[in-house]
Specification:
mainly alpha; two-stranded antiparallel ribbon; disordered N terminus; heme; heme binding; Cyt_P450_sf
């Protein structure tokens, strides 16, 4: 659910709340992410050790989805699940993951009534009905989590601030009542915020990691160079940590180039022109609804040389000054402005750390020596059409796993 802040006073109030919530929850993020990534790496090693096939072939996309959902849910609602529970039909994590993936899919598909509005009542493709059912499923799961949090408070079971999750922080900072922001109640605001953070933080993070590994597998020279950087800057006697990421310039360039080619949201959310303006020779009246094509911006040959090629070195040379934060309009993988991705910090931490750990800990090759297909699937998060499978082999001492 999206809402529009209707006054400068409400904007200021919302910004102050966001700051308080971010500061209170910040200490959780790095620790929880590290623990989950540790578990993920151990799982990869266990899969390799227990595989009856040699070399060991693994569905990396599936494991990455479980990892990013666990990190997201632990940070937002304090939930921890085993990876296997995401495959257990009708379990709570199975229902939520299925509904999130369905929501991302439905948000990005073509609905005929968008082009021919008078056909909306017919719901010819069944998408409107599917959207309503998915919305109800998501609301039911999140409402249950919110009820659990409120009950803990009633029963006096809330832990210390360091043990609080994002939902706890929001409950603490929002007074109960029907009109907190633009007429929405506290509970609606909390549920909507938890949902959008999961959508942007879990689904898109796994997708970005999948694309990054797919690109590296199809470009073994780049993969080798990234591993050589890790060996030089970190070594093979210990695992790469969050504090090491700033030294890994080539790894950072790989992540930027992945986000350029496959932005988490190829289209921005709907914006509105605040005044009359002219864009590319077209007059845009005030009040016009606007959608920016980020995918097209990132492949504009006037800005990017060989725009469809995977060339991380461009972010070390010609485009070294570009950042993720939306200050350079030619590179806005997380959009720009106040409505940019709310989970950017956590998402970037997880992407860099997970990718670094995988490359440091394992040699990866394609299945049967064949190139990875790079077909894009339907959905607002630009998913890969087919799951990524790869052959893995540990490259560090077994005592580290």
């Amino acid at each position: 659910m999206l809402w529009q802040v209707s006054s400068e006073e409400e904007k200021k109030e919302e910004e102050e709340r966001d700051t308080r919530e971010d500061e209170s929850a910040k200490q959780l993020r790095a620790t929880e992410s590290l623990l989950q990534v540790d578990t993920f790496i151990k799982g990869l090693q266990s899969f390799y050790a227990g595989s009856v096939d040699y070399p060991a072939k693994v569905n990396i996309s599936k494991l990455l989805e479980s990892l990013t959902f666990n990190i997201s849910l632990r940070t937002i609602v304090g939930k921890r699940y085993r990876s296997s529970t995401y495959d257990k039909e009708n379990s709570e994590p199975w229902r939520y993951k299925k509904a999130i993936k369905k929501a991302l899919y439905l948000s990005g598909i073509f609905v005929i009534s968008d082009a021919i509005p008078w056909l909306e009542w017919l719901d010819y493709q069944g998408h409107v009905s599917a959207m309503k059912n998915t919305s109800k499923e998501l609301d039911a799961v999140i409402a249950n989590w919110l009820e659990e949090h409120l009950k803990k408070r009633t029963d006096g079971e809330v832990g210390s601030e360091s043990e609080s999750d994002f939902m706890d922080v929001m409950i603490s900072n929002l007074a109960e009542g029907p009109d907190q922001i633009s007429g929405y109640s506290r509970d609606v605001i909390i549920k909507a915020t938890a949902l959008i953070l999961t959508l942007t933080g879990a689904g898109s993070t796994a997708t970005t990691l999948t694309w990054a590994l797919s690109l590296l597998l199809n470009n073994p020279a780049v993969l080798k160079a990234a591993q050589e950087e890790l060996d030089k800057q970190v070594g093979r006697e210990k695992w790469v940590e969050e504090s090491d990421i700033q030294k890994l310039k080539y790894l950072q360039a790989i992540v930027k180039e992945t986000l350029r080619l496959y932005p988490p949201g190829p289209l921005t959310g709907i914006r509105e022109a605040m005044e009359d303006c002219s864009v590319g020779g077209y007059d845009v009246p005030k009040g016009t609804r606007l959608v920016v094509n980020i995918w097209k911006l990132h492949r504009d040959p006037r800005v990017w040389e060989n725009p469809n090629e995977f060339q991380p070195d461009r972010f070390l040379t010609t485009h070294a000054d570009l950042d993720f934060r939306g200050q350079n309009m030619e590179f806005i993988p997380f959009s720009s402005g106040r409505r940019s991705c709310p989970a950017i910090n956590l998402g970037l931490l997880v992407v860099h750390l997970t990718l670094a750990r995988i490359l440091q800990g394992f040699d990866l090759t394609t299945v049967a020596g064949l190139p990875v297909d790079m077909v894009e699937g339907p959905g607002i998060a630009l998913p890969k059409e087919n799951p990524l499978e790869a052959v893995i082999k540990p490259r560090l001492g077994l005592e580290l796993y």
